[in-house]
Design goal:
With about 210 residues, this protein is mainly alpha-helical. It has twelve helices and no strands. The longest helix is centred in the first third of the chain and has 17 residues. This is Stalled ribosome sensor GCN1-like HEAT repeats region domain-containing protein. It comes from Timema podura (Walking stick). InterPro entries: ARM-like, ARM-type_fold, HEAT_GCN1, HEAT_type_2.
């Protein structure tokens, strides 16, 4: 981006971060999320930059928009522009860091839905570009970990299956730094007394991970 564009983005960022009321947050979310879907890469890049800044620095409560953000940001993981991919990753990282343990567990289904939505637009690719960034899946791993370790049995099963879906879409190189973080909770669950379907989901995910790395 040129210096002029960056300066304009800084002005816009100051305006966006001044928003604190409920109506203003809704306006910011609706407009920026809509702009990230533009066919114009410059518009996508600018809007995701502002959205990332908002999610990272705002003191306003945007918790009700988390499902919408998860879907929109993970869909941007299909983008062909590296800057858009990186800013979408940083925005997702900022969003997931705001979640407490109960919220993490509750949003596992939103993550799975978001990944499936993104996959539908992959157009024949086997991997999700955003997951293949360095530490690409790091922002969502705490959600799966919390659900696997402390969720109800059906949530554990869903989290294990969702983690397997993510592994399928991630390159071996991008998975390497997270192998221990992934395998720890899965192996721990195998030693506990849970229904066979939970353990089957865990074993399948472990097998996928081993096959990849």
């Amino acid at each position: 981006m040129s210096c002029c564009v960056w300066q304009e983005l800084e002005y816009c960022q100051a305006v966006v971060l001044s928003v604190s009321d409920e109506v203003g947050v809704r306006t910011v979310m609706d407009n920026l999320m809509d702009s990230t879907k533009s066919d114009n890469v410059d518009v996508r890049r600018s809007s995701i930059t502002l959205l990332c800044a908002f999610c990272r620095h705002t003191h306003a409560d945007y918790s009700q928009y988390v499902p919408q953000l998860l879907r929109g940001l993970i869909h941007l993981f299909t983008d062909s522009n590296k800057e858009v991919l990186q800013m979408a990753w940083e925005a997702l990282n900022a969003v997931t860091k705001t979640l407490d343990s109960n919220q993490q567990t509750a949003h596992v289904s939103d993550i799975r839905q978001a990944v499936r939505f993104a996959v539908s637009d992959l157009k024949g690719q086997d991997l999700l570009p955003g997951f293949c960034l360095p530490k690409g899946i790091t922002p969502i791993l705490p959600l799966f970990r919390e659900a696997i370790l402390n969720g109800l049995p059906e949530v554990k099963e869903q989290a294990a299956q969702g983690l397997g879906e993510v592994i399928r879409l991630t390159s071996a190189e991008a998975l390497q730094p997270s192998v221990v973080q992934i395998t720890g909770p899965l192996i721990r669950i195998l030693g506990d007394r849970f229904n066979w379907n939970v353990k089957a989901a865990v074993l399948e995910t472990l097998a996928l991970l081993l096959a990849k790395v």
